[in-house]
Structures are given as C-alpha cells and as structure tokens.
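To assess whether ligand presence alters the predicted conformation, the chain was also submitted together with flavin-adenine dinucleotide. Input:
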Amino acid sequence: MEDRKTDDLFDVAVIGGGVVGCAVLRELSRYRLRPVLLEKCFDLGEGVSKGNSGVIHAGFNVRTGSLKARANIAGLKAIYDLAAGLHVPYRKTGKLVVAPDEEGRRHLEELKAQGDRNGTPGLEIVNAEAIRKFEPAVRGKWALYSPWTGIISPYEFTIALAESARRNGAEVRLGRNVTAAESKPDRFVLSTSSGPVSARWVINCAGLWADEVAGMAGSADFRVYPYKGEYLILDKAAGDILRMPIYPVPPRDESSLGIHLTPTMEGPVLLGPSGEYVDDKNDARSTRPVMDMLKAEAFRMVPALGRFPVIHAYTGLRPKIDGPGETGGPADFVVAESDRRPRWVNFGGIESPGLTAAPALAEMVVEIIGTKEALSSKDGFEPGLPDLPRFARLDDGARAARAAADPDWGEMVCRCEHVTRAEVRTAVRNPFGANSLDAIKRRTRCGMGRCQGGFCTPRIVEILQAEGLKPEDITKRGGLSRLVFGRIKP
Ligand SMILES: Cc1cc2nc3c(=O)[nH]c(=O)nc-3n(C[C@H](O)[C@H](O)[C@H](O)COP(=O)(O)OP(=O)(O)OC[C@H]3O[C@@H](n4cnc5c(N)ncnc54)[C@H](O)[C@@H]3O)c2cc1C
C-alpha cells in the first residue's frame, strides 16, 4: 500500500504495534478520528508483546498508589470481557505464590495487604493442604492464592486489538520504521522508511525504543534499559499436571516476579523468566547457564515437571526506565503528554503488568486528547470480532462436517497442534498482509508444537506459493529473513 501524500493529515499517529499501541489504536477507533498505526516490523506484536509470560496479573505485585497499580486493576476488570468479545483464547486460572517457610509467609502477608489496598479481588493465604488441593504437584508450606489471575495468548490479543481497530476504520501500516519527527505548528511530520506521515497527535508506544522515539521530538525524559528474561517451554503434556501459574515469593528488590511456571492455553508450560540488564535492545540469545538455573528453580517448586522435555527457548526484554544500580525500587509507568511538544504523548517503562494494563492505558490517551479537544463517539462502533473456528477445538462431528464442505479442513498442515490447510489459508489472507512463517505461526500455532516446524514448514511454503508468493519472497519474519535464495537445480 502506498502512503498518502504528506498533506493528507491523520488525527493521530500511533508509533508501535505492540499490545499497548494496538489497544490505543482500538480505543481511538471509537471516536470520530482518523488514526493510523506505524510499526517498523512486518507484523504486529513482534516486540516485548510476544516475549512475556502471558499472565493476566491481578494487581498485588505493584505499589499502592502507582499508575502501575491503577492501570493493572482497571485492565484486569476490562481484559476478560474484552478478550471474550474479540475471541482471543484466555482462561481465568487463579495463581499461587508459594513460600517454603515462615519468613516467606510474612512476605506473602505483605503482598496480600498490598493487593487488598490496590483492590485485587479475593486474595487468600492458604496452607500446604490447600496448595495440594489446588495443584497436587506443587511443593510449598504457604501460598498466596489469587482467584482473578489468568492466562492469555499475548500475540493473539495484540493482533485482535489491531483487527478490531481496523474494522472500526483505523489504519495499520507495517514495515514503517519511524526515523525522524518534525514539529510544525499544527502537526508532526514523521519520516518513515516508506515516506512521510503527518498527524496532529503522536502517541509514542515504541516499547524498548520509546526513549529514542521520544528523542526524535526532543521530548526524551527517560531512558530505556533492556532487562532480559530468558524462558524455556516444556512439552504440552506438562500442561496435564499444572492448571495455574505458580510463582515463588518475589525478590525483595521488586526487580522481577521471580522464576515462575506458567501454563499456556494449549498446554505447553513456560519456565522463567530470568532477569539481567543487557546492553543490546535486540539481545535475544538463550544461554546455557540461565537455562540450567531456570530448570533448577522451577523444578524445586514442581519436581514432577522435571520429566517433561524442553521443546523451545525464547527471551523477552523488559523496557525498564530504572537503570542498573538505581535504588528506590522499580520506576512507575510513564504516560504523559510532553511538556516541550504539545500533542506528543510518550509511553515509557511499560514493563509488567503492561499486557494486563494495556486496555486501561489506552483509555488514558483518550483522556489526554480530551483535555485539548472535544471527542465525539462514532456511531456503529463494533466491539467484537468474528469467531474463527479452530480445528483443534472442534468436536469430531464439526470437524467431519467442515472437511466434507471444504477439503482444506481435512488436510493437516501442523500435526503437533492440529492445524489444517484451511486455517493456514485464512491466516495468510489476514487483513494486514502479514505472511511470514512467524505471522502464520502466531495466528494458527503452526510450528509451536513438539517438532517446532519440522513437519509444517515445507507445507506452509507450498501454501504461500499457492497463494501467489514467489519462493524467494517467503520469509521467517519479513524483511531480509528469506527462507530460500534461488534454485540449486534447473
Ligand atoms: C519477560 C517479560 C515478562 C512479562 N510478563 C508479563 C505478564 O505476564 N503479564 C503482563 O501483564 N505483562 C507482562 N510483561 C509486560 C508486557 O509484555 C509489556 O508491558 C507489553 O508487552 C509492552 O507492550 P508495548 O506495546 O508497550 O511494547 P512492544 O510490544 O515492544 O511494542 C512496541 C513496538 O514498537 C515498535 N517500534 C519501535 N520503534 C519503532 C519505530 N521507530 N517505528 C515504528 N515502530 C517502532 C516495535 O517494533 C514494537 O513492535 C512482561 C514483559 C517481559 C519482558
């Protein structure tokens, strides 16, 4: 798609297609505005929003009175209904924070008191017997039980927010790296990798790069320090013995929530994350010593998980705005219009619980714009999305009926996750034209199972060709990540 001319003015340009930017775009699409989202990657959710635990936090880990606490609780109250309406997989699982001893119990009492003050519903301290009833495989003497905690697919949520925004008139432009911003009296002119984009308001939701993007407008009031978290993924059979996230008592310095175990919607269990400041915002390396440490810590709380194979490793980088060695605990979220550049709003330090808080953070943008101009709601805003059927979730009768009507529903592309050709075809035809292997993986789960794409990759390549892509244009994640470079035989 070609960019419009520079004199074609958007009301709002959102920089960054993570969960926050997509939630902001969707919120803006409720109003009589012309919003556009610019994302430098070739799909949505390629940043912090794909490398996290996918936990819907209940708000007891965050300091009372902070924006983190307010946005966490408001996000918690909104996210389950929102996910249901968008047909994003989620489960209100509950969660246990497990202590091995009396000192740990004292810390749990403090967390409970903080949660009660913040408005977290239903927190309870439970004993070893109750822990065993909730989760027979978990070892611990005391636990804080949080009934409102849940799990969600973070990238499916991010994509669904963007699809919902688009359905309501917002524009999404992928592969648009914003490289500079010029401030004019009535607008900002953003230079992007595919030409300029003008907008009256700019919302900087650039995650790890939010400091650099803020700097483009001369409004860099914070610096982002990447804080790496490595994860391991256990085979989906592990999901049979763990229903809810299991956390240790968090470290006193509140730098992280500790190495936890998190079930996912489809069964695989996540171990992690670690916590370490790194210099490089692109550092996605998994390392042997951390992998060994993750297993040791996690299996101490749930020894029975030790028998399941690790199928994959990944990392996430927290966009911290408190640097190494700084005291006083983690910094609060920054969501503010720049003093120096009116109509330029920065989001800074959106680390955990940013996924949970995203719907509430998005509403803050509307409030900020609303202080300067009257916003009127659009008629006919559609809050939901159609429910796309998934073969893996259908019963045998529904599967047979679909396969009879369309043979693509009878052709298995991913044997680990039970994904059919029909679902891959729908994913390839997504409204944003994201058609890399990773884009299809995030929309279908192809390649997320035990064989990690060994079986499905050649089949997806064949489907992409059938959909009109040349082999040399097929990529892992867009850009230069090509799978093939040419024929080796005539
Ligand atoms: C290890 C870890 C575990 C976490 N666990 C949880 C959890 O369980 N629950 C929870 O609630 N939260 C969790 N979080 C926090 C949550 O993941 C983040 O708060 C959230 O994903 C941040 O989203 P975002 O949209 O701000 O950033 P991102 O997802 O990083 O999005 C920013 C986007 O901006 C784009 N961008 C950057 N620069 C430019 C530019 N110049 N031009 C165009 N585009 C640009 C990037 O490509 C990126 O896609 C966790 C985070 C980490 C790292």
